[in-house]
Amino acid sequence: MRVRLSELKPGEAAVIEDVALPEGERQLLMRFGFFDGAEVRCSRRAPLGDPVIYSLDGSEVALRTETACRIFASPIDGKACEQKG
Amino acid sequence: MNQLLQTVRSSAAGSQQPIRTVALIGPPNSGKTTLFNRLTNLRQKVGNYPGITVEQHTGVMALPNREISIVDLPGVYSLNPCSEDERVAVSVLNGKMDGIPRPEAILLVLDATNLTRHLSLAAPVIALGLPTLALLNMGDLLAKRGGAIDAVKLAGDLGIPVAIVSATMGTGLDAVGRFLQQANSPSPTTLPIVQDVRDCRKWAARVAHKSDYRPPLPPAWTRRFDDIFLHRFWGPIVFMIVVGAVFQTVFGLGQPLSNALQDLLTAMGQKAAPFIANGFLRSLLLDGIWKGVSSVLVFLPQILVLFLFIGLLEDSGYLARAALIADRTMSLVGLNGKAFIPLLSAYACAVPAIMASRTIENKRDRLATILIAPFMTCSARLPIYTLLIAAFIPEHPVVGIFLGSRALAMLLLYVLGFAAAIGTAKILKSSVLKSTPAPFVLELPEYRWPTFRTVGLRLMDRGRVFVQQAGTVILVVSLLVWGLTNLPLHHGHPPALEDSVVAHLGHFIEPAIRPLGFNWKIGVGLLTSVVAREVIVGTLGTLYGRDPQTQSVSLQAALQHDLTFSGAMALLMFFAFAMQCTSTLAVVRRETNSWKWPIIQFIYMTGIAFLAAYMVNQTMALLH
Fold it and tell me: A51, B198: Cβ pair inside 8 Å?
């Protein structure tokens, strides 16, 4: 099943499959660890609901929903509960 | 897929020339700048926010037998330049930066608690072929949170020496000295294709795994703090409490300190008076110089308190959260949360803020940020704000002990500056600087305790700059104003103030500023403060010090007699908007590479200032 990164709820994890963004933006996101094959977990939402904080490789990176909805990923089951709290 | 690194610079490896220049490179927020401070003891801005070092700084490190210059580079994630600060780093490393010799060795700083990610920068850096030492910074945190790394195995894999250090604690740094005494080119090793960020990442993960890297436990404290600071409800409330507390402290703590300093400086002047012959010289030294310079010096405590708070917020990591909370608001005017950081540091000073805008990848967003930054209430506005508020607004509690009327007035002025900045951004971004929105990507660092060392060093640095300014620019302007108050001489005697050159000058421009509620003395202050905003206070100090009617009273009391309430409020408005700062104009010209933008900016801001002051004075005069 393929979901948009923006559809993940806090605590849920996924493996990125496709970053469907223009080349420049893709390069930028890549430097923060967003590329296909990378494991991402939705960490929390900013107080006003947007941007959303994702944790990957031990760092926390915030993205706006408008960007996150262009990143496609396949959810990892079970991982979600294990890391929560 | 992989390429084998060949040590092409065999001459460097063989001849063992002594190293004279070494570059400090690492990803943003890896602690490079703290390390730089450690190694050089040089003052330099440190912050717990990615992208603090926006210009390369050079310092000197003393080895037992010689000195080495260390170049601190902006933080980079890769060596494929994407933003202005990455371009700076790459051109320094290639010896293409004017005034900086090509580094002969590299200190690669990596955050040991984030090693898997940070290691990917090692590939392109090692590929440069220069002698390199990898410093795994924050080694103390790694151990404390249950992580581990085999530095020997890592060194074998990378082909370069590796040391575990802590820049904050100062441990393990003797490795740097040893490395600089005898630096070798990297041993041949297998590297990924360095232009391919993804390939570097995979390589980094593999190397970290082979070196028995055990990442530390997630930072529990950071999570707990973020549960509050980024809480749906409490987050924005904490944000506002923090901002309110800063202003209340600037007044509540800074004001009494300023008053005490004022008393001290006045007493010093009076004590010195009997030792100076009465007449010309005493007037020059006491009425001219001392009154002018000390009227500005008294604001030192308040400026230091403000800088202390900004320093604590920056170093602790809260600033990045504030940017996150602000992103939604910033997006309404077409900017993103990244622009919020330069804008926030513009509360201290627009000059570093404009330089900090280099981290913004989108050129048009960057230009918009540069153009609106001077609207933010910088610390140079504090002297005139504090002076007028203390003179014209009576103190009474508004929100219990939390907020008094004076702090509230100050807060409103800050909000006004912010609103002007945001409004201008909206205009720019929907017209000349329209662009497709750049994606907002912001790394949130862990919370850290600000150390006395970094915050203290920065305070000292700021204090020194302020005192230097008082000792040079303000001294010269005070002297000039005093000189003009004493010309033309009548039979060898100075004229009455009303007949002096400066009064003629003031009266000449008075028709233009009369509708704003200003008298000729304020007018002279407006002219001199084009150099820098705080100069007006020094000028007024000198002018009222020369006036027999107000000679014996404080500047505050003198203004109360000489200015209407509406005029004072109009003057506050004028300073909220006007572009009275030659340093800012110079840095805008440098960063935009043309005179066009600083000229437009000056006319636009001063125009708004005139209009706002005029409207406030006229409306308030009507109400009275």
Answer: no
Q: Are B158 and B189 in contact (CB under 8 A)?
A: yes
| Maximum Cα interatomic distance, chain A, rounded to a whole number of Å | 36
3-state secondary structure of A2: coil
CB of B321 closer than 8 Å to CB of B231: no
Rounded Cα gap, residues B439 and B437, in angstroms:
6
Determine, for residues A63 and B233 on separate chains, whether the beta-carbon distance falls below 8 Å. no
**Rounded to whole angstroms, how far apart are CA atoms B8 and B198?**
26
What is the separation, in whole angstroms, between the first and last Cα of chain B? 80
Asked if B147 and B182 count as a contact pair (C-beta separation under 8 A), the reply is no
Instruction: Report d(CA A62, CA A42) in Å as an integer.
Output: 10
User: Could you count the other beta carbons within 10 Å of the beta carbon of residue B187?
Assistant: 15
A1-13 in b/e burial notation, b at 16+ Cβ within 10 A? eeeebbebeebbb
**pTM for the model:** 0.73
- The number of residues making up chain B comes to 624
**Residue from B436, B441, B443 whose CB has the most chain A CBs within 10 Å, to mutate:** B441
Q: What residue in B sits closest to A49 (Cα-Cα)?
A: B232
Is the peptide bond prior to B488 cis by the omega test (within 30 degrees of 0)?
yes
Tell me the CATH class for B3-217.
alpha beta
Extract the tokens encoding B609: 């200032």
Return d(Cα B228, Cα B235) in angstroms, integer: 6
For residues A26 and A34, give the distance between their C-alpha atoms in angstroms, rounded to a whole number.
8
CA dihedral B86, B89, B95, B97 (to 10 degrees): 80
For the record, the structure tokens of B36 come out as 């730089």
Q: Is the ipTM of this complex over 0.90?
A: no
**H/E element holding B523?**
helix B520-528
Helix (H) or strand (E) holding B248: helix B234-252
Q: Smallest CA–CA separation between B81 and chain A, in Å?
A: 10
Please give the DSSP secondary-structure letter assigned to residue B66: -
What phi and psi values does residue B25 have, to the nearest 5 degrees?
-130, 150
- Which candidate in B193, B194, B197, B336 is best for mutational testing of the A interface (most A CBs within 10 A)? B197
For A11-74, the DSSP string reads: T-EEEEEEE-S-HHHHHHHHHTT-STT-EEEEEEE-TTS-SEEEEETTEEEEE-HHHHTTEEEE
| Dist. CA B347–CA B322, nearest whole Å | 14
The CATH superfamily assigned to A3-80 is Ferrous iron transport protein A (FeoA) (2.30.30.90)
pLDDT digits (tens, 9 = 90+) for B353-392: 787 777 676 778 888 889 999 999 887 888 899 889 988 9
Taking contacts as CB-CB distances below 8 angstroms, the residues of chain B near A57 are 114, 116-117
Query: Of how many residues is chain A composed?
Result: 85
Residue spans of the domains in chain A: they are: 3-80
Interchain proximity B439–A64, CB inside 8 Å? yes
Enter the tokens of residue B555: 């500047």
| Minimal-distance CA residue of chain B relative to A60 | B444
Q: Reduced to 3 states, what is the DSSP secondary structure of residue B62?
A: strand
Q: What would the pLDDT profile of B488-539 be if each residue is shown by its tens digit?
A: 777 777 777 777 888 888 888 888 888 888 988 899 889 888 877 888 888 8
CA distances in angstroms from B184 to A55, B13, B16, B64, B191, listed in the order given? 38, 6, 8, 20, 18
Q: Please count the residue pairs, one from chain A and one from chain B, whose beta carbons lie less than 8 angstroms apart.
A: 98
* Percentage of residues in chain B having pLDDT higher than 70: 90
Number of neighbouring beta carbons within 10 Å of residue B306: 22
All CATH 3.40.50.300 domain ranges of chain B, comma separated, are 3-217
Gap between the Cα atoms of B395 and A26, Å rounded: 55
